[in-house]
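Sample 1 of the test manifest.
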Amino acid sequence: MKLNVRAAQSSRVKTDALAVALFSDGNPSSGFVAVDRALGAVLSDMRKRGELRGRDGEVTVVPGNTRVGAKRVIVVGIGSRAGLHPATFARYAGLAVRAAAARKLPNLAIQIPEPIPFSTDNVLENAAEGALMATFDAAPYRSNRNGKPSDLASITFVVGTPAAVKEHDRAVSRGMILGEASNIVREMVNLPSNDMTPTHLAKRAAELARQHGLKISVLDRAEMKRLGMGSMLSVAAGADQPPKVIVLEYRGDKNAKHTLGLVGKGITFDTGGISLKPALDMDAMKGDMAGGAAVIGAMAAIAQLKPKTNVIGIVMATDNMPSSKATKPGDVVRAMNGKSIEITNTDAEGRLVLADGLCYARKLGATHLVDIATLTGAAVIALGNVSTAVMSNDRQFVDLFHQASAPYGERYWELPLFPEYAELIKSNIADMKNSGGRQAGTIYGAMFLKEYVDTAPWIHLDIAGSSWTDKDLGHLVKGPTAVGVRPLARLAELFAHASLHNKADDAAYERLTPKP
Ligand code: BES
Ligand code: ZN
Ligand code: MN
């Protein structure tokens, strides 16, 4: 599928389908007015009759005529002007793509409305991402595969002013890189565990590494043992599928003082282990490697965006299975940094694999750490599918992350790591235990992980709720969301320029984090 930008009067563009955006309030954009005029005021007539309201997500298709170059005009509601966000244009483009594909209209032009309060490039990047993300195939195992969004031949973004075409092209190619990376992640998360094994995940990572020039190494059980990854190995103990630690390295600056480390939870299936999960909805646990997939996708995007910095991506991949070799509740293991862990619940396995992943990232030279994981059901209870739970030991670093995520439609919300919560993880027999009572489950997970980052500034992203959607949301369809991919890639870009300190400034963090 080809994506390009053209400066033109959109009603004149020869195409199968032309998408125009409609606000739910205020005056329609100049582009909408021009198309409406060419259509003989059909659209304004429909507006008067209340058939077209411009509500977010509303899609209406009308035939073109001899004065419009398009065979069909797709009117997409984008909601109120006040609620407008650059990510609105990802949804807009996504809805247009899906409407065109469903009607087998292979060439689509998408008008970028003007004027809007964002830079055209910001909007174009989001629109390109949304267009690509809408082509995601959510049912790859279905036999009848007609009329897929990916069957579209070309998408042309139509802007009013002919200036800055070079910058526009750059914005679109950024959007394509990030949109494509997101789709690869969604594909990986969507695959069931009989196909998405740790070995397969490593193979996909290797393919992407080769394609984009990343260094890759994959550790097997024996190498994990040599490194002292007792915590990771305790989760893999019951699994016949060989566990893998996947390490991707991007070097964009030989002289960099800082290295960003991204660590992803790659549980290819989470049965809970001996602390077996109930049957209801257990199939969703095929997506327990969404954090690991996000790290792979972000690394692929970073390799193409080429920021002047260094990034290491680590994915801790294994099934979590019951078996006679499996870890049993009460067992005590030792992580790579020598800390002992009493495993009180084998279903709290994410923190166990991440503990060694974080230690290993430090060992490989990461100065700043981000982990991303479908860690706790409690995060789903607290924030639903809407928002990712964010926890950190460093105000400056987490603020950089918020800045990185701002252009995208993803929501991130912080939970506190007050020292009082350290009580939760105390064990009677070891340095800590991996699960406790019912209180503060999401914070518990983070307090546990905090023991493995040493003094490094660190951000923990709990995507248990946000990695999956049950609703069709424009550019997203029911299924994996690839949450985190775009913000992590952009974090690497900001990381290249930010002036960062090496050690967590605990005093500053205390000052800035509100006390109860
Ligand atoms: N993978 C789950 C968390 C999860 C739950 C993700 C629902 C997505 C949807 C994780 O490994 C887990 O089982 N967590 C336990 C921890 C508990 C035993 C301390 C949980 O949240 O119940
Ligand atoms: Zn899990
Ligand atoms: Mn679990």
